[in-house]
Each structure stands twice: as structure tokens, then as C-alpha cells.
Specification:
Length: 370
């Protein structure tokens, strides 16, 4: 186990970065509900027709890696804190397992149905929240390992995954579809297979060991973040330029839409290396900003402290009022998506601030889990 000193209970740069990820996710969902491009755009097809639509969609590509890595960071911190307070290793793990199971429950009971405004109950598939939950359960089994052991496990998964996605399976045979799409590849049952995202979840726990414990000063955190993030980007470019192993889609030339838009469903090795680097650099930037302008990003902590509530509630509101009530559903473009983002932030920020207060005061098991 990594022995962690007694430090503050919240880390502003992590809360703020989680808030940024939540806002970018809201932008992506606003586009999904208001943007007419989704009438013909295939989620599995990364190519888009213009720079505006490219920027709108590409910003959302940071969300899943960011969510998985920040969740992994908090899993490590939660485990360390519970053990330091005298909780047994098994009890600390059991708390994480319960949290993971709760996330799977939220996915199949709330999130799936909220996309359509609860017109129908749709428990029959998984998604990003369930993938985070399953990853949390798996990470709890290795969370006491040294950071370099966890790093090696994550690296092994990333190296092996490109071979696993070539395994053929029949989507008409339910057990094959469920098994492959839960863990390895993407399809109608699950666009977020656990294995590649679990690797990023592990890497989040590794980075937390550095951010919170190993690197004692912000200067050290910034230097190490720049080195690790930049190295990951360089490695990702090398993989991409190889045009073979670690890529799923081809690209026309360096710097083109297609160069950056390798497949997300499932994520290629290039995708995960690239966005791991961007997440690390993003957190590093937030640490640096916090030193020179500590109040500048405070508003992002509001959704960042209650990310599951922010995700579940904003999705339900959009599903009910835009999809189910057919209010400007997929009638606009980039501007409509941005207006939708602004309106939803006006609604969601006060709600998040209110719920965070409720959560702090409540001893209810389910409220504490949200």
C-alpha cells in the first residue's frame, strides 16, 4: 500500500477538472439533442464535415478518458483514507465495490431510460456510467498494489487490447455479444467496453499517487505532469504515424480531421494514449492556474463535486424537455448546441450547489452514493 500523509480532503484541481469534463459532456449532449447533424451522423463514424462540428464533437472526446481517470484517482484516495483511519483493507474495498455496483444500477435504471425522456424502461444495455462502475470494482482488487505494479497492469491491457478486438463474434448470439461488448469491443449492447477504459481508470490511480503523495509541491506536480503528458502525446503520434498496430481508422495526413479522430468505440491505442496525455496536461494546467489565479476556475468545482448528480440530472432534463416533448429536437447546429449548453448551465449550477449541501448533511446511504 502507498502510505499517504494526512492532507486536505478535497483537491481543487481535481474537482475543477471533473467540473470541466462535466461541462464538456453537457456540451456533447446538448449537441446530441439540438444539432441536426445527428440526423445522419453515425456515432461510430469519426468524420465530420466542418471545423465547427469537428471542435464541437472533438471536445467531447476528452470526457470518457477524463471521467475514468478522475474516478480512478478518487478510488485510490478514498481507499487510502479509509485504511489510514483504521478501516480494514476488505472493508475499504467493499465500499468501492458497493459504489461500483451502484453506478451499474444507475446506468440500467436511470441513464438508459433518460436518453429518451423516460418514454420506456431500457435496462438492456450498458454505457459509460456502468463501465466506470465495473472498472471501480476491478480496481478495488488491485488498489493496494504499488503504483508501478498498477502501471504495468494498465500498460499490459493497452498493449493486448488491439489484438483482442480482432476476435470475431456473432451479435445474434446473446452471450457472445454481451461478453465481447462488455469487455472488449463496442456495439449496440455497450459502446464503452471495460478493458481499455479500465486501463485509463488504473492510470488515473497511478497519477493520483503522484499528484497527492509522491510529488510534494505544486512545482513538482507541474514539472512531472508536463513530462508525462508530453511523453504520452509523442508516443501516441508515433503509434498513429505507424498506420498499423494501435490504430483502427486510417487517416489522410498529419493534422487532418481523420488524424485526430481515430475510433472511440472501442478506443484505439492511439486514442487512449493521446487522451491520457491531454488529461494529464489538463490537470497540470489547472494546478498551474490555481497557483496564479486561485479563484478563476472555482465555478467548475460546483459540478465537479457532484459529477454523477450533474450527469444524471442534466441528461434527464434534456431527454424529457427536448426529446420527449420535441422541443427544437435536432433542428439546429453549432450555435444551437452552444445556446443549449448556456441554458443548461444556468439550470444545473444552482442545482449542483444545492445537492452538494444536501449530500454533506445527509446520512442516507443512497444520497451519499450519488
Amino acid at each position: 500500500m502507498d502510505s499517504t500523509p494526512k492532507v486536505k480532503q478535497r483537491f481543487d484541481y481535481i474537482d475543477q477538472f471533473r467540473g470541466l469534463i462535466g461541462v464538456l459532456m453537457l456540451l456533447g449532449h446538448s449537441s446530441y439533442y439540438f444539432n441536426a447533424i445527428w440526423k445522419q451522423l453515425d456515432p461510430f463514424d469519426p468524420i465530420v464535415p466542418s471545423w465547427g462540428q469537428f471542435a464541437l464533437r472533438y471536445m467531447g472526446y476528452l470526457c470518457a478518458p477524463g471521467f475514468l481517470m478522475m474516478a480512478g484517482a478518487m478510488v485510490w484516495w478514498s481507499y487510502q483514507q479509509r485504511v489510514l483511519k483504521g478501516t480494514s483493507h476488505w472493508t475499504a474495498r467493499w465500499h468501492l465495490i458497493q459504489r461500483g455496483l451502484f453506478l451499474v444500477f444507475v446506468q440500467i435504471t436511470w441513464v438508459n431510460s433518460s436518453w429518451g425522456g423516460f418514454k420506456a424502461f431500457q435496462p438492456g444495455h450498458l454505457g459509460i456510467i456502468a463501465t466506470i462502475g465495473i472498472s471501480m470494482i476491478l480496481l478495488s482488487l488491485i488498489i493496494s498494489a504499488r503504483w508501478y505494479v498498477r502501471l504495468l497492469i494498465a500498460a499490459a491491457i493497452l498493449i493486448i487490447h488491439p489484438f483482442l478486438i480482432t476476435i470475431p463474434y456473432n451479435t445474434e448470439i446473446i452471450w457472445q455479444e454481451v461478453l465481447m461488448e462488455t469487455f472488449i469491443t463496442a456495439g449496440e449492447f455497450n459502446k464503452y467496453p471495460v478493458l481499455p477504459w479500465f486501463a485509463l481508470h488504473i492510470l488515473g490511480s497511478v497519477m493520483a499517487t503522484g499528484w497527492i503523495y509522491l510529488w510534494k509541491t505544486d512545482k513538482k506536480r507541474i514539472i512531472m505532469g508536463l513530462v508525462i503528458g508530453a511523453s504520452a502525446l509523442v508516443l501516441a503520434i508515433i503509434v498513429r504515424m505507424g498506420r498499423g498496430y494501435g490504430n483502427i481508422f486510417s487517416f489522410s495526413e498529419f493534422g487532418s480531421f481523420s488524424f485526430f479522430f481515430d475510433q472511440k468505440y472501442p478506443p484505439s491505442l492511439f486514442h487512449n494514449l493521446w487522451f491520457f496525455g491531454l488529461v494529464v496536461l489538463g490537470v497540470t494546467a489547472f494546478i498551474a492556474i490555481g497557483k496564479v489565479a486561485p479563484k478563476m476556475l472555482t465555478f467548475l468545482s460546483i459540478p465537479g463535486k457532484v459529477p454523477l448528480f450533474f450527469y444524471a440530472v442534466h441528461l434527464a432534463i434534456l431527454g424529457i424537455f427536448v426529446n420527449r416533448m420535441d422541443f427544437f429536437y435536432r433542428e439546429g447546429g453549432v450555435l444551437a448546441s452552444l445556446i443549449g449548453l448556456a441554458v443548461m448551465l444556468v439550470i444545473m449550477l444552482p442545482l449542483c450547489k444545492w445537492f452538494y449541501g444536501v449530500k454533506l448533511r445527509s446520512k442516507n446511504y443512497f444520497i451519499r452514493m450519488i
